[in-house]
Design goal:
41% of the residues lie in helices and 13% in strands. The radius of gyration is 26 Å and the shape is globular. The longest helix is centred in the middle third of the chain and has 15 residues, at 260-274. The chain has helices spanning 13-19, 29-38, 50-58, 62-72, 95-108, 126-135, 153-165, 182-193, 211-221, 242-249, 260-274, 290-294, 298-310, 317-330, 340-354, 362-368, 381-391, 409-420, 427-435, 440-446, 519-523; strands spanning 5-8, 42-47, 78-82, 112-116, 138-144, 170-175, 200-204, 225-228, 459-461, 473-479, 482-488, 494-498, 513-514, 517-518. By secondary structure, it is an alpha/beta fold.
């Protein structure tokens, strides 16, 4: 039995991180048989933003996706990411809704529930954990990782012990920003192993460029499971490549035992699939080291830039990044993960645009009033006072927030019937409506049309006069809206350059030239003058 196991994230977090959670089920099923043969600890395939994306953008029923994947993956556990009392929506739900959601998620195919809470409040795990226990499924309690004065290794170890006490079967370190450093990860795993013998899984992103080293050191410290993704959907804001980690550990005591050739076949499949979603991809695919200083997750950074652009204040991004640190401190150092990353980020934008706490978002008021749970550190009392006044509350909530939410499943069921225009409704449809009541009605109306279909964007070539014998043929080719000059030499060699690029005396369209040859073919070992001269 391998000492280190891998959970592959290709069916959920990889495409959520790289191209806005747009992958449709029909692009997953053809490769499911090979994925099922690999021997992963699990495949993360549901939860997170997939539910929202399915009904909002893909016209696809997320419950049907789960059922189809379960049927296609009979030998591999399916993991989902669940936001505790938030489930997959953006507010706390009553305990009866949480219980019903977990019941049907387990029934339709979820084997492992990775449960987390944005502020790491163990009380927000209670309902989901108890419901998952009744299904007999695996409960993985995730610690949202942050780097602040209050998030020490000792605090994290204490949290892990609390999660073990509430019934977790394993512990996950959820590093959503790529902030977990290799040696700190090593020390963290060692500390947690002193307080619990539960298996530990490491989830980190490649955003800052540290993830491969971090996973390696965490394995050396005793972490039994690592999150990776197949190489063709790895790196950038995604995760470490599965094949890379398999080869790093091969022949060592941490050998995963996985078949690299099978993994390469899977990588080739997703390399082609990725072409379908090019228009959703960020232009940034490298290592974003700004996060090491700002600690702002990549997705949150792009969201902030979008907000400022809408306000005509793009030049204020640096001020907002500085203000985020202030707001995070004033709100008790919540980890920057959904939904607290959006709440803290939006308030920072408000502070920069309108003055410090002159305008409070509704969600920020709720966070300061304790409606999301207890934050790791004390909050700024003056800001808490402003939030309470706005909410007309006398004092901050100190009990479990969900205790204030009366049972609501029956009410939501009646609303779902109206939205569907029927006298009966399935529990899955009630839960879909509960998660996104404003989006679900439109989805119900259009569901019968079937999921959207994405295809690679077409490449078109402009007609050009035929070349005379012995002369190069020249074309202008349009790819995704950009024009390129293409020169086909008589020998069959091809040169491509952006249209309008300056030409050198030698006729080269590259910006740099070296003795009548482009640096490009020279650097790539293709020193053929016909490519440029």
């Amino acid at each position: 039995m391998p000492k280190v196991k891998l959970t592959d994230l290709v069916l959920r977090d990889a495409h959520q991180s790289l191209f806005a959670t747009r992958m449709v089920t029909s692009d997953m099923l053809p490769i499911a048989d090979k994925l099922d043969k690999v021997g992963f600890f699990a495949l993360e395939a549901w939860g997170g933003a997939t539910f929202d994306s399915c009904i909002r953008f893909l016209n696809e029923d997320p419950w049907e996706r789960l059922k189809k994947l379960k049927k296609a993956l009979p030998n591999t556990k399916i993991m989902m990411l669940l936001r505790g009392q938030n489930l997959l929506g953006y507010r706390h739900y009553a305990d009866d809704v949480v219980a019903k959601f977990v019941e049907y998620a387990a029934k339709d195919g979820v084997d492992i529930f990775r449960i987390f809470d944005a502020v790491n409040d163990p009380r927000n795990f209670k309902a989901a954990t108890e419901a998952a226990k009744k299904t007999g499924k695996h409960i993985q309690a995730a610690i949202s990782y942050a780097v602040t004065p209050f998030h020490t290794i000792e605090k994290y170890a204490e949290l892990a012990k609390q999660y073990a006490d509430i019934g977790a079967d394993s512990i996950c370190i959820k590093d959503m920003s790529g902030l977990l450093k290799p040696y700190e990860g090593y020390d963290l795993i060692k500390a947690i192993k002193k307080v619990t013998d539960l298996p530990i899984e490491i989830h980190t992103h490649a955003t800052t460029g540290m993830s491969v080293a971090t996973l390696t050191k965490c394995a050396e410290a005793g972490a039994e499971i690592l999150d990776t993704t197949i190489s063709s959907l790895a790196m950038g804001t995604s995760h470490s490549p599965t094949e890379t980690m398999v080869e790093i550990f091969r022949g060592t005591e941490y050998d995963t035992g996985l078949d690299i050739n099978l993994l390469l076949e899977i990588a080739a499949y997703f390399r082609d699939v990725r072409k379908n979603y090019k228009k959703f991809e960020s232009s940034f695919l490298g290592a974003d080291t700004r996060i090491l200083a700002s600690q702002v997750p990549g997705g949150m950074l792009s969201n902030l830039e979008s907000q400022l652009k809408e306000q005509g204040a793009s030049d204020k991004i640096d001020a907002v990044l500085k203000e985020i640190a202030v707001v995070q401190k004033d709100s008790g150092y919540p980890p920057l993960v959904t939904p607290t990353s959006q709440i803290v980020g939006t308030q920072a934008v408000f502070n920069v645009l309108f003055g410090s706490y002159n305008r409070l978002s509704g969600e920020f008021q709720d966070l300061m009033a304790g409606k999301y749970g207890t934050c790791p550190a004390p909050k700024n009392p003056e800001v808490v006072k402003k939030a309470l006044e706005a909410l007309k509350m006398e004092k901050e909530i100190t009990h479990r927030p969900a205790d204030d939410i009366p049972p609501e499943y029956s009410k939501l069921e009646e609303e779902a019937k109206k939205a569907l225009g029927t006298g009966t409704v399935s529990p899955e449809d009630v839960l879909t409506y509960a998660m996104f009541p404003k989006v679900a009605p439109n989805f119900f109306k259009k569901r019968g049309e079937g999921p959207v279909v994405f295809k690679p964007e077409e490449t078109s070539a402009a007609a050009a006069p035929a070349a005379a014998p012995g002369q190069a043929a020249r074309y202008t080719v349009n790819v995704n809206g950009a024009n390129y000059n293409v020169v086909v030499a008589p020998a069959g060699t091809v040169a491509v350059a952006p249209a309008g690029a300056p030409r050198r005396p030698c006729g080269c369209s590259r910006r740099s030239c070296f003795r009548r040859r482009c640096n490009y073919p020279r650097a790539s070992g293709r020193n053929d003058p016909a490519l440029c001269c």
